[in-house]
Amino acid sequence: MRSIAARLWLPASVLFLAAAMLAGVLVGPVHLGAVNVVRATFAHVFGLHSPLSGADDAILWELRLPRVILAALVGGTLAAAGAAYQGVFRNPLADPYLLGAAAGAGLGATVVVAYAPASSLTGDLLPFGAFVGAAVAVVAAYVLGRSAGVAAGPAALVLAGVTIASFLTALQTFVQQQHVDTVQEVYSWLLGRLATSGWRDVGIVLPYAVVAWAVIIAHRRLLDVLSVGDEEAAALGVNVARVRLLVVAAATIATAAAVAVSGLIGFVGIIVPHTIRLLVGGSYRLLLPLSVIVGAGFLVFADVIARTIMSPAELPIGVVTAFFGAPFFAVVLRTSRRAA
To answer: Nearest CA to 108 among 136, 138, 129, 128?
Structure first.
């Protein structure tokens, strides 16, 4: 009975995502109408005539729709990465930035802003710099963690991530001190932003997100086995090191791509997986696909709040997720302590 009830959450999560995306394209100073939005979207996909006027059609297709789709991709990626990290490291507080991806992306973005100011290439180089920085940070953390030896286990990777993140944050601070005029631009990027998103940003994230989701979900049963411990999983025939490497690599590279176009958006990887655990249990067979769908809907709704709560001004989306995430993190921390 519990299994049947749990599976009902999958279509419910799809409805949640659909409602979030519809709200995302409808909310704004220009009223488009739900029916016209749906018809216009299908018209663009299938090459038909749009029912919206030229200006309204441009608002939908060039502004709102790519922003909503990007928010869904980033949210689904961060939530799935968070759930995967929590399974691989058997740590309920693990998040997508655990191995220094956030610090690396921040340094990469800061270097681009500082050394390519007011350049026509800055807009193109910023995502690239953030992605390279995040990827380099993760590789460095993994190499450093592995140097401690296989016996050190996942704890060595976590400590390596903290070490690399601290070092890269120090470098970022140094660069900013040398280029004080870049502080405001870097700070606004660090708080997360989707306001300038377009189809190009969607194209950057999409392949990484899809591949990462496929790899992570394909390993969902093995993550259930890993939850009993490395030795027990190895005794059952699981190649623990290989599973950990594949899942961590997929999650972190996709996170790097997401961070490159959206900035740092925290707590999604903690809020969504833990909420799903409370509702449907801790099995990764259902937790991971639900994390992708619910994480996508959650960030779309968060973006709607970010651009409406202080309208016509816009609140950084990272502030919204932190507003919900900080108290949620405290609850998870307290619960984990009691369980221990």
So the answer is: 129
The rounded distance, in Å, linking the Cα atoms of 86 and 195 is: 30
**Residue-wise burial string across 233-255, b where 16 or more C-beta atoms lie within 10 A, e elsewhere:** beeeebebeebbebbbebbbbbb
Please compute the mean of the pLDDT values over residues 74-78 and round it to a whole number.
95
Q: Dihedral (C-alpha) 33, 36, 38, 39: value to the nearest 10 degrees?
A: 180
Contact 102, 264 (CB under 8 A): yes
120-137: per-residue pLDDT in tens?
445 567 788 888 888 898
Residue 69 has what pLDDT?
Answer: 95
3-state secondary structure of 277: helix
Place of tokens 């191995």: 99
The proportion of the chain whose per-residue pLDDT surpasses 90, expressed as a percent, equals: 28
- Low-confidence winner among 26-40, 123-137, 142-156, 244-258 (lowest mean pLDDT): 142-156
> For residues 90 and 226, is the Cβ–Cβ distance under 8 A?
yes
Q: Within 10 Å of residue 192's Cβ, how many Cβ atoms?
A: 24
Please tell me the distance from the alpha carbon of residue 108 to that of residue 176, in angstroms, as a whole number. Answer: 12
CA atoms within 13 A on the CB side of 232: 8
Give burial (CB, 10 Å; 0-12/13-18/19+) of 35: exposed
At 82, the amino acid letter reads G
Q: Residue 59 is part of a domain; what is its CATH number?
A: 1.10.3470.10
Query: What's the number of domains the chain is made of?
Result: 1
Residue-range definition of the domain harbouring residue 70: 2-339
Whole-number Å distance between alpha carbons of 70 and 260: 12
Residue 70: exposure state from Cβ atoms within 10 A (0-12, 13-18, ≥19): buried
Query: What is the residue type of 215?
Result: V
Contact between 103 and 136 under an 8 Å Cβ cutoff? The reply is no
Q: What is the pLDDT of residues 242-295, one digit of tens each?
A: 998 899 889 888 888 888 888 889 889 989 999 998 888 888 999 999 999 999
Report DSSP state, residue 229.
-
